[in-house]
Amino acid sequence: MGQMVNTKFGLVSRTEARCLGELERQLKDRRWQRKKPQRPHKPRITVW
Question: What is the pLDDT of residue 40?
Answer without folding.
Answer: 64
